[in-house]
Design a protein that fits this description.
The protein is an alpha/beta fold and about 400 residues long. The chain has 2 domains: about 10-130, Response regulator (Rossmann fold, 3-Layer(aba) Sandwich), CATH 3.40.50.2300; about 145-400, Rossmann fold. The protein has helices at about 20-30, 45-50, 70-80, 95-105, 120-130, 160-175, 195, 205-210, 215-225, 250-260, 275-280, 295-310, 335-345, 355-365, 370, 375-395; strands at about 10-15, 35-40, 60-65, 90, 110-115, 145-155, 180-185, 225, 230-235, 265-270, 285-290, 320-325, 350. The strands form 2 sheets. Strands 8-9-7-10-6-11-12-13 form an 8-stranded mixed sheet, with helices on both faces. The chain has a 5-stranded parallel sheet with strand order 2-1-3-4-5. Helix 4 (about 95-105) links the parallel strand 4 (about 90) and strand 5. It is elongated and about 85 Å long.
Length: about 400
Amino acid sequence: MTHHGITKTPTVIALVRSSDVADALRDAAGLDNGLLSEVRVGPLARLARQETGGYLTDVVVVDADLDDDGDIDALTALMAGPLARTPMVVTTRGASVAGMRRLMRLGIADVVPQPIQRQELLAAIRLAHSRRPAPPRGPDTRRPKGLVTALLKGGGGSGATTLAVNLAGVLAARATRPEAVGLLDLDLQFGACALYMDLEPRLGSLEVMQAGHRLDAELLASAAARHRSGVAVLAAPPAPMPLDAVDPDQAARLIEVARRQWDGVVIDLPQAWTPWTRSVLGACDVIVLVTQMTVPNIHQAARQIETLAAEGLAETPLVTVVNRMAPPRLFGKPDLVKRAEKTLGVPLAHFVPSDWKAVSAAVDTGATLVEDRSAKPVRKAVEALAAAVAAAARARAGTGTAA
């Protein structure tokens, strides 16, 4: 699609102060051609505080009064926030010399006077689009790659999300720098990591993966919500989305960017296998299979192990965890554990005891167990799991031995 010299239709949003300007923009742009993807109407100061999806937008058009200090402050906030790398076109009426100088200092791409003329608007958008920074060729290869761990659900209600949240919390507590751990919620239908941590995400994992070539470290950092524990959380979509809404390449790019962004990456996956599950797990250093000591869960976990082998992932280190069960006594394993190991074909070495009251209290306050510290046995078990994951990764890399 071409718009008078714009060979690739850019994604353009408009922030305007009145419905009259909104109508004028639509008329000038030609809404039937789809140039304006969204028009928001309201006071500029309020619009500037809303999430604009800046990294997913090619150009933003802003209606502003250049003699109004409030509008200039709002423009400044937009340029310094999520739109820092997005070219901006300002439309205004009767701009003064002082107002134009203000725009020049802000780095605005172009100005369209009002009343808005179609050719002037399209030319300004074309110019702004040409100034958008080129997408990076790839993640920053100067940083060492972080350790990527995926939690795979071996049956419904296994508590994998609780373990993912708290495994990330343990890693963050041990980190040597701020915001060194990322938690990716890739359960596109029922992901709840952000809810467990009482966070309001700006962008979700689906939007970030669908950003395509625009997905880079800056987008990921902007989209992730910061938890007080130091964990950066890329949340699941707010509403259930089709699991095939993402392709394997998009998922693989997210993992590659994430492992360059953070020293440790924890991934919470949906229980069902998707077209991109293999791509995610293939990029992981360690897979943690979470199950419970019930017949249905053990058999579901066995199916997951069989699927991993069928997908060519048998060589990826697998750490099995039985959730909500006290560790066996020091001498000898109960017959129940032995039977489960026979069904699974792998040893069960990690057990997380049940403490529903303490864990629920932590979730209700958005805290990790590292912060809450009331469920000490559970926290100790998660800390042991973190050590086992690190040992498995070292063993795979040939720099240590498996635990």
